[in-house]
Specification:
The chain has 126 residues and is α+β, with helices and mostly antiparallel strands. The protein has a domain of 88 residues: Roll (Ubiquitin-like (UB roll)), CATH 3.10.20.810. It is 12% helix and 29% strand. A four-stranded mixed beta sheet has the order 2-1-6-5, covered by helices on one side.
Length: 126
């Protein structure tokens, strides 16, 4: 089944970070930094994943979200198997440099492997 997408075909847009900006990113003892993914336009938080220096660099250069899978111990580019690609429009880092925020144009059904648009579809107390 092909993923549904109602917009024009997204275009990859590389992001040119400076060496100083990249040096400000603080990775944990495993060489990873958490990356929160937010949808452009709606502002909805779609998912959280991990990045290492190589996947961050690939994300910035390619304009597509690329993460590090802790369970598989390998890189994964969002949407390569599902078609639910994430086209990165901006990358911010927090005041401590230890968390990233990716603003993306979400293609396909959504970000969650369950088929939901966001991984945050459950709420405590409901």
């Amino acid at each position: 089944m092909e993923p549904h997408y109602d917009g024009p075909m997204p275009v990859a847009t590389p992001i040119h970070a400076t060496a100083e900006q990249l040096a400000a990113i603080k990775y944990n003892q495993e060489g990873l930094v958490p990356a929160i993914v937010q949808e452009q336009g709606s502002g909805q938080v779609l998912m959280m994943a991990w990045m290492n220096a190589d996947t961050l660099r690939e994300t910035l250069e390619s304009g597509r979200a690329v993460f590090w899978s802790r369970s598989r111990q390998s890189r994964w580019r969002k949407g390569d198997t599902s078609g639910d690609r994430q086209w990165v429009r901006a990358v911010h880092y927090d005041c401590d440099g230890d968390t990233l925020l990716l603003t993306v144009e979400q293609e396909g059904a959504g970000a969650c492997h369950t088929g939901n648009h966001s991984c945050f579809f459950r709420r405590l107390g409901d």
